[in-house]
């Protein structure tokens, strides 16, 4: 929970669920102990879908097809004294010639991308944690869209 005078930031993010042969493409910030879905910040005067397309192109140098919206995850965390609150908008996304046997090359030196078996999201610490439930619902054909949160329920 945020303290009154604590610095804080709010983030609107677009994330892509990229699946092939029961594998999920994840991003990893080198030196950290978690993974997350490819994508990133929505810029002002940019649609959420456009931002996801742009982020994947910037991070991977690849052209993507941003498909159906499957849900959102709101989350909060603290990093180096700053409170962060975020809303992640999640889309099924396709990459041309995606092959889980070959990890895509990152265009950003602080990131790496790799495929994980879909049943190993916990082992690879995919964050925010509620993202896992949304992905599981999607692959199990549970009708969405879905909303999950790290905040306590009222």
TrEMBL record:
<dbReference type="GO" id="GO:0016787">
    <property type="term" value="F:hydrolase activity"/>
</dbReference>
<feature type="domain" description="Nudix hydrolase">
    <location>
        <begin position="9"/>
        <end position="139"/>
    </location>
</feature>
<protein>
    <submittedName>
        <fullName>ADP-ribose pyrophosphatase</fullName>
    </submittedName>
</protein>
<dbReference type="Pfam" id="PF00293">
    <property type="entry name" value="NUDIX"/>
</dbReference>
<dbReference type="InterPro" id="IPR015797">
    <property type="entry name" value="NUDIX_hydrolase-like_dom_sf"/>
</dbReference>
<dbReference type="InterPro" id="IPR000086">
    <property type="entry name" value="NUDIX_hydrolase_dom"/>
</dbReference>
<keyword id="KW-0378">Hydrolase</keyword>
